[in-house]
Write a structure and sequence with these properties.
The protein has 147 residues and is an alpha+beta fold. The chain contains 4 helices and 6 strands. It is globular.
Length: 147
Amino acid sequence: MEKKVLNSKVSIIDKDGLIYMMGRSNESKTHVTYLIKYLEDKYGADTSKLKSGISRKIYGYIFGKLGSIIYFNDGLTGMFYFPSVVTDEQEKVLKNLDLGYQKIAVCYSPFKLNNDIDYKMLGLDGEHCLKDVLAEYFIKQNNHLRR
C-alpha cells in the first residue's frame, strides 16, 4: 500500500498512474503553489492568471482536462478531484493508497453552474475513508455506464 501520499501536501496521479507528491502535509505553503509550479515545469504553461486565491475547483478542472487526479491533503481530511474518466491505471493506484483514517471526499463529473465549475461529491460527511468513497464512486460509475 502506498502510504507516502498521506505525508504530501498535494499529489497528482497522471493518466498513466504515476504519482507526483509535492510538499509536506504539515507545512504552511499553499497547495496551489505546488500545482502552479507543476504546470510550469511539466507543460511550460503560462500560469500568470493562476494564483492562490483561485478555488480548488478550478485547479481540479484544469488537471482533469489533462486527465490527472489531484489529492489535496488537509491533515485530518483529504479531497480528490477526478477527471471525467478515471483510467484503469489510476484506479489501481487509488485502490492501493493507504490514507489511514483520514476523512475523504471525491469530487467528480464537473459541470457548469452560473459561470462557475462545480462537481458532484461523495464523502466527507461522516466517517468516509478512501476505501468506502472509492467503492461508492465506482458503483455509481458502473451503474452510469450500464444505462
